């Protein structure tokens, strides 16, 4: 297994943060729409985002009232998740993926990496945490590691985040699958 780190500059192609001016709302959209399996509750999200519960409550209420999030009472707290039945779910998920540059990572990796069987986001981003480091595992029997080392400048121009690539021979079972053959 080989790991490559790529430092990305902060001038990403998709500036969703200029359209959505609430930092909290943007972080919630990333949390819930990067991976439909992600869930959260108000206090946990407040701790994760280092925000006040009032700010989180306001945005969760707005997103729930608009139908983008589903609320479910579980014991003494309310759990939230993306409403996959919402007509804009796919579009919002696509926008979040573009905002993070995940679509560009897949395009660039598949271009000349060899026999790619799987491209998977693992770590914080797979769980919806916008930590600044996207961990990507590329799975295949004979991958072009030399190309991956040259990939840094290309990816740097495409997205505004740090990316850590890992090469593997074994399929990844956990994470956000971006490509699978």
From TrEMBL:
InterPro entries assigned: WH-like_DNA-bd_sf, WH_DNA-bd_sf
Domain of life: Bacteria
Entry protein name: ArsR family transcriptional regulator
Species of origin: Parapedobacter composti
